[in-house]
């Protein structure tokens, strides 16, 4: 049988694309590249030490994930943020993450409970130390402790993309959420209900949590005085 594995040069090229993709994606999600900011290929090639071809491939990948947009004769730029986009992201998150949790529910056990609570503790510690980048990374791990047993690689991949896009809004205002302790308690509740409650109660608790975060972000950027799921007025910076 003919060997169809990529040649060494092809593998090196793929590696360079992955490198550029990782660097640019990180800068977009963290807010280092602002919404609407132009992403000149030549500049990115210089900054990442790659040629223009891997940069273009990486930008196309980021376009497919909604983080980059191309305009005719104007090149690539960071996708702009909007209230409509925010609402769309969180509607999709509730659907996909709720279904992932529903599929994973029967497989969540004491081990998952203990792991999730340990990650919450680490998340709270990072946020209290104002290490927001680490706090966000662990925050994602907290959620994926619940989702990873869903058995769907595609669902997990799509959820990751949605997390990257919603993370852009939070990166612009890292102090937006409640206190680290309150944020931790909110996650402890979701984890406890997910492991010890019914699948429906677990999905309901998760969706309430996502809706509350959506309301916080929406109030901060677009609708001052907006009420959260609990009926409380969302605090403003």
Summarize the structure.
By secondary structure, the protein is mostly helical. The chain is 68% helix and 3% strand. Residues 1-11 and 228-237 have low confidence and may be disordered.
Which regions have little confidence, pLDDT < 50, spanning 5+ residues? 1-11, 228-237
Biggest sheet record: 2 strands, antiparallel
* Helix-strand topology string: HHHEEHHHHHH
Number of helical stretches of at least 4 residues: 9
Structural class: mainly alpha
How many runs of DSSP E, i.e. beta strands? 2
Beta-strand fraction estimate: under 5%
The Cα radius of gyration reads 20 Å
Helix fraction? 55-70%
Mean pLDDT value = 88
The gross shape turns out to be globular
Strand order of the largest sheet: 1-2
User: N- to C-terminal separation?
Assistant: 64 Å
Write structural notes for this entry.
The chain has 237 residues and is mainly alpha-helical. It is 68% helix and 3% strand. It is built from nine helices and two strands; from the N terminus they run H-H-H-E-E-H-H-H-H-H-H. It has helices at 8-30, 41-48, 52-64, 83-104, 110-128, 132-147, 153-171, 180-196, 199-221, and strands at 68-71, 75-78. Strands 1-2 form a two-stranded antiparallel ribbon. A hairpin with a 3-residue loop joins strand 1 (68-71) and strand 2 (75-78). Helix 5 packs antiparallel against helix 8. It is globular. The termini are far apart. Mean pLDDT is 88; it is low at 1-11 and 228-237.
């Amino acid at each position: 049988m003919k060997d169809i594995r990529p040649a060494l040069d092809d593998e090196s090229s793929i590696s360079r694309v992955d490198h550029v993709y990782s660097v640019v994606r990180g800068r977009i999600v963290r807010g280092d590249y602002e919404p609407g900011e132009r992403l000149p290929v030549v500049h990115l090639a210089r900054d990442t030490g790659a040629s223009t071809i891997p940069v273009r491939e990486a930008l196309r990948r980021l376009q497919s994930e909604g983080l980059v947009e191309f305009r005719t004769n104007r090149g690539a730029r960071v996708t702009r943020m909007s209230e409509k986009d925010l609402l769309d992201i969180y509607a999709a998150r509730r659907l996909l993450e709720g279904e992932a949790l529903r599929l994973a529910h029967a497989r969540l056990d004491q081990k998952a409970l203990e792991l999730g609570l340990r990650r919450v503790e680490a998340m709270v510690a990072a946020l209290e130390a104002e290490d927001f980048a680490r706090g966000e990374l662990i925050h994602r791990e907290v959620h994926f402790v619940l989702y990873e047993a869903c058995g769907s690689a595609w669902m997990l991949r799509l959820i990751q993309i949605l997390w990257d896009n919603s993370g852009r809004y939070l990166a612009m205002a890292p102090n937006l959420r409640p206190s680290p302790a309150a944020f931790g308690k909110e996650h402890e509740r979701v984890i406890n209900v997910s492991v010890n409650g019914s699948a429906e109660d677990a999905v309901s608790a998760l969706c309430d949590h996502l809706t509350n975060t959506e309301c916080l972000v929406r109030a901060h950027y677009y609708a001052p005085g907006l009420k959260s799921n609990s009926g409380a007025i969302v605090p403003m910076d």
